[in-house]
Amino acid sequence: MPHPNPLDPRRFPRRTVHLDFHTAPQITDADGTSIRPRSPARSARPTSTA
Predict the structure, then answer these.
(1) Upper half-sphere CA count for residue 29 (Cβ side, 13 Å)
(2) Which parts of the sequence are annotated with region: Disordered (predicted)?
(3) Cβ neighbours around 24 below 10 Å, total
(4) pTM, two decimal places
């Protein structure tokens, strides 16, 4: 019996989403700074206002 397709959204609807969030913190920007899921929201605010 062949292995089920791990990318099949019908069989694993949350597996792909979990992998996206799991690999997100490991992504580095061109400058070398690590990009975190919550980083963009904070960076969007001007430092002068904060």
Answers:
(1) 8
(2) 21-50
(3) 14
(4) 0.14
